[in-house]
Design brief:
Blueprint (H helix, E strand, L loop, with lengths): L1 H27 L5 E2 H7 L5 H16 L3 E4 L3 E4 L3 E8 L5 E5 L6 E4 L11 E7 L8 E9 L4 E8 L3 E6 L8 E4 L10 E9 L8 E10 L3 H11 L8 H8 L6 H4 L3 E2 L5 E5 L8 E7 L5 E8 L1 H4 L5 H9 L3 E2 L4 E2 L4 H7 L7 E11 L5 E12 L2 E4 H10 L5 H20 L9 E6 L5 E7 L3 H24 L10 E3 L5 H13 L6 H4 L1 H11 L6 H10 L5 E3 L23 H14 L7 H35 L5 E9 L3 E6 L5 E5 L8 E4 L4 E4 L5 E3 L3 E10 L4 E8 L1
Parallel strand pairs: 6-8, 14-21, 15-22
Antiparallel strand pairs: 1-3, 2-3, 4-5, 4-7, 5-6, 7-8, 9-10, 9-12, 10-11, 12-13, 15-16, 16-17, 17-20, 18-19, 20-21, 23-24, 25-26, 27-28, 27-33, 28-29, 30-31, 31-32, 33-34
């Protein structure tokens, strides 16, 4: 039996080798076609066994779309389909080229042409050997994603190499001696590629900035900033322009609705410095409430074509890393002129609503105002007032909270999806070392602010959408969220069923069914996994001029109006809203759409950088926990490992399949599990498991775990 298996393996190897030789003959010869006999003759095959194998090899190549057979048994190379896409270099062994339309194309490492992650490339596309997903070979690099990379320097006697931080870059870069620029072994640096690779040679370049020793807090955070092209400081001309702005608003106040006599306050995190929204409350003579949502009037200070405007657009968003904020606007604006600090007159853009005791909006007004905040609340202080009924403006806080709960209830009745994920933050010491993982707990004071911000965003978007009665609407910036992909929802429903939960979309509608399931799993061991999978099955929210709705919030029209200090799209919304309040005609859609696309891209980059900084601190924290056992839940499975979320710290690590010595485990993608080929032991998404911290790598931001039991 063993001899037969070896003989079969040898035959398969021979056929595979034949395929390679035939391809080399066809693609390297000036002749356009060959007969079967000439193929055998030119390659020097004589034995009957080889003659029998050549037709099999040819048949495989035809199925793979690499050759064609013509009338008279003439064989020629097949001109592949050509396409263009972006490289997603997921593994050292292979990558995918992501197409704008159609399925992604699989590319083996040997066919990469030294393309790097995110490069735009041209690709020759073939059918796969076994008729499955298409495969390809990169033929041209159209545009390099970047020329600067971040990593750790390894220095030898007369040269060095850069080990790149980005886990999707699977090769090191060569640094000649004169390119080290005083970088020492183990330094984190910013590196510029000056010579792209050819043949088997590595890319070559030079160190342009030393960030510090690998593993040091500032060096690692600066590495993340550089990896995601986040700015280290504002250009001098931007700071100069910000500092030159006058803080005298007395003349401007005359042209605005004066809200300074109305009770107004802010509610923010205890460590916040930029207060971009405030609430006001006044009881009207008819017993209804006038509630103002007042937003910092950033566009009064940041004028079109100014240096501040250019920089705000370029950054598009503030970025919140674990130990610092990289603001969209200079501190003079974000923490000073625009911040709605207590006991100061401030310029705002407001959405003011008359609301009855059932939280129904009866009237609305949008426009520029001036306010005077009476109190700055932290979330904890506001919550205490809501719970105890004591302290500053407690009755007003309670009233707003009751109205917010009614608004929230109405949202869910209309189909909003109730995702309440648990987030964590780190308590750092004076050196930036994490000493504690603290869960972020959402209480009523958080939800109060959230509901009134959602109300303002929804009503502003609805107002602009309905301004023009016909089919052609005014150009505007919407925050949209498409319905989920039906295939992803079907896969999620199948997986939920494994835990005994039904997602009956036909009976209750998609959003209601998801909410029922999320309520059903609350407090259950599978809660985190199913909630994570449900979120993954959702589409991503984006900025666009298309008048679509927001699935997750169940709003027909939605925008971002409430955070212009930290989001460029909110600045666009303020300008467009005022433009239409002044009864002007619609703006150019193409120009606004380009800005929306840029803003969505920058938001994605900021989110990735924030996750990277959290992962770095998680690895650093878990480094102190080596040898300790933890209970966890399997949060992901792949062909190379089992991802486990440690319950106590909310940190995720991986058990490598190669470390499971009791069996050879294979990845079952359809069922989110790995299965032992002999024991049939299975490890499935959502399983409880006990693990031990085996190894941590701050450079690569990974935590290796080993199985204790599961």
């Amino acid at each position: 039996m063993a001899k037969n298996r070896k003989r079969n393996q040898k035959a398969e190897t021979s056929i595979s080798s034949l395929e390679g030789k035939i391809i080399a003959l066809l693609y390297n010869s000036p002749l356009k076609s060959f007969t079967l006999k000439s193929v055998i003759k030119r390659l020097g095959f004589h034995s009957k066994i080889v003659n029998n194998q050549v037709p099999v090899a040819l048949s495989n190549l035809v199925k793979a779309g690499k050759i064609e057979v013509h009338r008279g048994n003439y064989i020629s190379k097949r001109k592949p389909d050509e396409a263009q896409g972006r490289v997603d270099h997921v593994s050292s062994r292979f990558a995918y080229v992501v197409m704008e339309e159609g399925p992604d194309i699989y590319v083996k490492a040997k066919d990469m042409l030294h393309a790097l992650h995110d490069d735009i490339v041209k690709i020759a596309v073939y059918s796969s050997k076994h008729g499955g997903k298409k495969e390809g070979r990169i033929t041209e690099i159209v545009k390099r994603a970047k020329t600067n990379y971040v990593g750790r320097v390894e220095v030898s006697k007369n040269y060095g190499f850069l080990v790149v931080d980005n886990k999707k870059v699977h090769e090191d870069f060569f640094i000649p001696e004169d390119g080290l620029n005083e970088a020492q072994n183990g330094d984190k640096v910013i590196f510029e590629i000056t010579q792209w690779p050819t043949d088997s040679k590595s890319a070559q370049g030079k160190v342009i900035r030393v960030l510090g020793k690998a593993g040091e807090h500032n060096a690692e955070i600066h590495s993340i900033m550089a990896e995601y092209d986040l700015p280290f400081e504002f250009p001098q001309e931007v700071e100069h322009e910000a500092n030159a702005i006058s803080d005298d608003i007395s003349d401007e106040a005359k042209h605005r609705r004066d809200m300074r006599g109305v009770l107004t306050f802010t509610i923010d995190p205890f460590d916040a410095k930029d207060f971009d929204d405030a609430l006001s409350l006044e009881v009207l003579p008819n017993g209804n409430y006038e509630i103002g949502i007042h937003i910092a009037d950033v566009t009064h200070y940041v004028l079109p074509k100014s240096e501040l405007e250019k920089e705000a657009f370029h950054r598009a968003t503030s970025v919140y890393l674990v130990d610092r904020t990289i603001p969209m606007l200079p501190e003079r604006l974000s923490n000073g002129l625009c911040s709605l600090r207590p006991e100061e007159d401030k310029l705002t853009f407001s959405a003011i609503f008359e609301i009855n005791d059932k939280a129904k909006v009866l009237n609305q007004w949008f426009g520029r105002t001036i306010i005077h905040s009476n109190r700055r609340f932290t979330y904890e202080e506001a919550q205490q007032g809501i719970e105890t009924g004591e302290g500053d403006f407690a009755s007003e806080l309670i009233t707003l909270n009751e109205l917010a709960k009614m608004l929230r209830e109405e949202r869910f009745k209309k189909g909003a999806v109730n995702f309440e994920t648990t987030e964590v933050k780190f308590r750092l010491d004076e050196k930036g070392t994490p000493i504690e993982v603290v869960p972020k707990i959402r209480v009523d004071s958080h939800k109060l602010i959230e509901e009134f911000m959602l109300l303002a965003n929804k009503m502003v978007a609805t107002f602009v959408f309905k301004r023009q009665k016909g089919k052609i609407k005014d150009t505007f910036v919407y925050r949209t969220h498409d319905d989920p992909n039906p295939e992803k929802i079907a896969d999620f429903a199948l997986f939920a069923k494994r835990f005994g939960h039904d997602l009956d979309v036909a009976k209750g509608g998609l959003s209601n069914s998801i909410n029922m399931l999320l309520h059903e799993i609350e407090g259950q061991p599978e809660e985190n996994v199913l909630q994570t999978l449900a979120i993954r099955s959702m589409a991503k929210a984006i900025y666009t001029t298309e008048e679509k709705g927001h699935f997750g919030l169940a709003f027909d029209h939605y925008t971002h109006f409430t955070s212009p200090i930290r989001r460029y799209p909110d600045m666009m919304v303020h300008r467009l809203l005022q433009h239409y309040l002044d009864n002007n005609t619609s703006k150019d859609r193409e120009e606004i759409e380009k800005k929306c696309k840029h803003s969505s891209d920058m938001e994605k980059r900021a989110s990735e950088a924030e996750r990277a900084s959290i992962k770095y601190k998680q690895v650093e924290f878990m480094e102190t926990m080596k040898g300790r056992d933890f209970e966890g839940v399997i949060s992901g499975v792949t062909e190379w490992g089992i991802y486990v979320e440690v319950r106590e710290t909310a940190c995720e690590g991986m058990i490598r399949l190669t470390d499971l010595k009791d069996d050879f485990y294979e990845f079952d993608e359809r069922n989110y599990r790995v299965v032992g080929s002999m024991t049939r032991n299975t490890y499935t998404l959502g399983d409880d498991i006990k693990v031990r911290v085996k190894h941590t790598d701050i450079d690569k931001r990974i935590i290796d775990l080993e199985l204790v039991w599961g």
